[in-house]
Amino acid sequence: MSDSGYEQQRHKPPRRLVMTRKFGIALKYPIPEHSRSPRYELSDDTLIGQGNKRDCHAHPEDPSLCIKVARHPHNWHECHQQSVVEWYYLSHLRRRRVPFDHLVHCHGWVQTSHGSGLVLERVRNDEGSAAPTLNDALTQGQIGEREAFSLLSTLKSWALRHAVAIADLNTANLMLRHRAGQRELVLVDGIGSRRAEWKFTLYQIFPALSRRKTRREWKHQGEGLARAIREVSADTQGRERARATG
Ligand SMILES: Nc1ncnc2c1ncn2[C@@H]1O[C@H](COP(=O)(O)OP(=O)(O)OP(=O)(O)O)[C@@H](O)[C@H]1O
Ligand SMILES: [Mg+2]
Predict the structure, then answer these.
(1) What are the residue boundaries of the structural domains of the chain, listed by start?
(2) Distance CA 214, CA 105 (A)
(3) In this predicted model, what pLDDT tens digit does every residue of 92-118 receive, in sequence order?
(4) Whose CA is nearest to atom 8 of ligand 1?
(5) 1 vs 159 pLDDT, higher one
(6) Could you tell me the pTM of the whole model?
């Protein structure tokens, strides 16, 4: 990875105060200046994951990285918002020296055939294989219900200890990584806030609010997540039993 990505993070992100009709003064989170070249060609061949708003592509030049781009051109700003939040929040956590045990490193913005893209560390296992999402790991029987709950509890303790705000907890936003003889969950989406708005600013200023956000997220989304884990895990076991009995 060229230095330019890190360079974008070394400087303080270019937040700026603007006047809005609704709230008076507000903070704006623009995408920082980034070089027009190189411009990476992305296609179905480079696609490695899809959410509702963004596509995730393998970086054409560096297998340890991926590039996230907005999915729907007609709704570009809305789709891009999570990448903008991710960039600002990961930069913020890095400056706060939060250990990135459950996060990916962010390498800044590049130009692609699909517009501006955010370059992030691609989640991989120690031996280099691509890590699965928690949903895929459960479906493929790579992890059982009990271990999934235990890893989630470790993730929650880490987030509360380091005041990391979690805003969208689900099995597609978590990946299962095998590192240094251990398995851990990695948050690839839904950190900081769902939107780059005033609450997002407050989470960066007040650790107590970030902790409250994470506790509330666990209370509201945690049940759905637990249900999804139980259901997928039960389905997988059912399939495995059926296969074993012929
Ligand atoms: N750092 C990463 N390394 C490897 N794969 C990733 C990474 N980030 C995302 N992915 C893959 O891409 C998929 C979509 O990414 P992401 O969840 O960020 O998109 P999204 O559109 O913001 O999602 P949502 O629908 O939750 O808003 C993930 O479920 C995962 O399979
Ligand atoms: Mg997602």
Answers:
(1) 1-122, 124-246
(2) 21
(3) 999 999 999 999 999 999 999 999 999
(4) 188
(5) 159
(6) 0.90
